[in-house]
Design goal:
Blueprint: E1 15-16, H1 19-27, H2 37-44, E2 48-52, E3 57-59, E4 67-73, E5 76-81, E6 87-93, E7 98-101, E8 113-117, E9 121-127, H3 128-137, H4 139-165, H5 168-183, E10 184-186, E11 192-194, H6 200-207, H7 211-223, E12 227-230, E13 233-236, H8 239-246
Antiparallel strand pairs: 1-2, 2-9, 3-8, 4-7, 4-9, 5-6, 5-8, 10-11, 11-13, 12-13
Helix pairs in contact: 1-2, 3-4, 5-6, 5-8, 6-7
Length: 251
């Protein structure tokens, strides 16, 4: 079977951020928290901040090794390509997320996955060698990296615990509440529309189940009045009861 294309989505033109603006953007990244203006000035010459248009593929299996991308603004969809050429969404990440292949950060290669911007975004790119030099010169960056890795470890432990001990309904309810928090438009009647559209396959991938199983859970949530679905958009009707499901207090 043919290998996935090198660039599954046409990548729009990108442009580098001007040096003066770069300093302000770097100051807002957690990785460089605690550094002085003079330190950031030096770091600015070692990093590349780029404005990306919607649909830009910022990380892929074809990336040069030992390079990381830090999402400064915008949102990015992580996905992989199935053997039959379909794109399967794994997650949607927010600013501050580190992407790419970097053994120094404990960040494994995305394997056969891609990272694509969902809208306008600003991305900071650093090579492994540059990051090592920055850590040696500015030890606080090393401390920030440790904090980042600790957060990732806690998230991984929570996901493993969820997969081991929670039902699909619990995991899906928790994911819906998370999506509502990130992309929701609350209405006066207590409902919340999740602006981002998802297919059943994408939702199933996010909670670690099959599309068929997810379809049964969706139907059950609709029957119980927890959720409405239309045109790949989700509306939460009863967030309190959905929270009970997520906590295992209802099934």
């Amino acid at each position: 079977m043919a290998a996935p294309p090198r660039s599954p989505i046409a990548t729009p033109p990108q442009r580098s951020v001007a040096q003066a603006e770069k300093l302000g953007l770097l100051r807002e990244l957690d990785l460089f928290r605690g550094l002085s203006a003079a330190d950031l000035e030096a770091i600015g010459h070692a990093t590349n901040l780029t404005r990306c248009g919607r649909g830009s593929v910022i990380a892929s299996p074809d990336d040069p090794p030992e390079r990381i991308h830090i999402l400064k603004s915008g949102r990015v969809r992580l996905y992989r390509i199935s053997p039959d050429g379909k794109q399967l969404t794994l997650d949607i990440v927010d600013p501050g997320t580190i992407l790419g292949d970097m053994a120094l950060l404990g960040q494994p290669r995305i394997s056969e996955g891609y990272a694509e911007t969902l809208g306008e975004a600003v991305v900071c790119t650093i090579s492994a060698d540059e990051l090592r030099r920055l850590v040696e010169r500015f030890p606080v960056i090393g401390l920030n990296i440790i904090g980042h890795l600790a957060d990732r470890l806690r998230e991984a432990e929570r996901e493993l615990e969820s997969m081991a001990f929670e039902s699909v309904a619990q995991r899906f309810a928790r994911r819906l509440l998370d999506l509502a928090d990130r992309y929701g438009d609350p209405a006066s009647d207590g409902r919340t529309l999740i602006r981002q559209r998802f297919t059943q396959q994408e939702l199933a991938e996010m909670v670690g189940t099959t599309r068929e199983t997810l379809a049964h859970v969706l139907a059950d949530f609709r029957r119980r009045g927890l959720l409405e679905t239309a045109h790949h958009q989700l509306t939460i009707r009863d967030p309190d009861e959905l929270g009970n499901v997520a906590a295992g207090a209802a099934s």
